[in-house]
Design brief:
GO terms for molecular function: acid sphingomyelin phosphodiesterase activity. Keywords: Glycoprotein, Hydrolase. This is ASM phosphodiesterase. The protein is mainly alpha-helical. Helices cover 35% and strands 5% of the residues. It has four helices and two strands. It has a two-stranded parallel sheet with strand order 1-2. α1 crosses α2. The longest helix has 20 residues. 9% of the residues are buried. The mean pLDDT is 84.
Amino acid sequence: APQLEPNVARVGRVAARLCQDLRLARPEVCRQAVQLFQRDVVSAWARSVLRPGEACGLLLGRRCGRWDIFGAWNVSLPATPKPPVRPPVPPPPGAPTARLLFLTDLHWDRHYVPGSEAACPDPLCCRGAAHPGPGGAGFWGEYGKCDLPLHTIEALLAQLPSAAPFAAVYWT
């Protein structure tokens, strides 16, 4: 919405400063993260259940409003009773089947470097110069705070024809 534009930058500045003051990440990481997500955060807050004074108090402190994480919460549930749990019934023998491929959370990091630092203080590691010795990021990827190198995703996709055919493919 156009009326949000001046406030998006202001919220971004406050969020970046808060991220740095709380030492959540290095200053440049705080600035980059806020730059990526500030419009989404402001949009979500504008549509949230927070009243303007609460949102302002959350972002800027008591000088403009009051927000209390321990404040009273009121969640209204419908009067309809929850339906009883029915255990799933397995299909009968000989029922039709289908092969599905479901790919999810294939996060590609264009800056991934095998052998780079795999345990860093930043939100995303496995970047930068490779270093000799154990403890570096693996060639195919690294569990933890790292996304995947492109060659891992390419290798996965190259193997799919040998596993085909699929009735449907979902990539989320």
